[in-house]
Specification:
It is found in: Nucleus. It holds the Pfam family zf-C2H2. One of its GO terms (cellular component) is nucleus. It is a single chain. The protein has one domain: Double Stranded RNA Binding Domain (2-Layer Sandwich), CATH 3.30.160. It is built from three helices and four strands, in the order αββαββα. The strands form two sheets. A two-stranded antiparallel sheet has the order 1-2. A two-stranded antiparallel sheet has the order 3-4.
């Protein structure tokens, strides 16, 4: 690792340490960013909005997935049947 903090974060996978705990429900996380994302469950914050229909989402990946309902994009196909 080129940065000591990256090694510290990596070691958590091996030790099971989850130092970032939600004060609302007690769930704990490896990373602070994961705790902040989780907090939206309790706060109701939905910062990612669809420009087409106005639906909003807690995570940007969920908005990306939702956008495909408007575009018709289907980026994943079955290798066996093509569906």
């Amino acid at each position: 690792f080129t940065v000591s903090s990256h090694l510290i974060q990596h070691r958590r996978f091996h030790t099971g340490e989850r130092p970032f705990e939600c004060t609302e429900c007690g769930k704990s996380f490896l990373w602070r960013s994961a705790l902040l994302r989780h907090w939206r469950v309790h706060s109701g914050e939905r910062p990612y909005s669809c420009a087409d229909c106005g639906d909003s989402f807690r995570q940007s990946a969920h908005l990306t997935q939702h956008r495909r309902t408007h575009t018709g994009e289907r980026p994943y196909a079955c290798a066996d049947c093509g569906r």
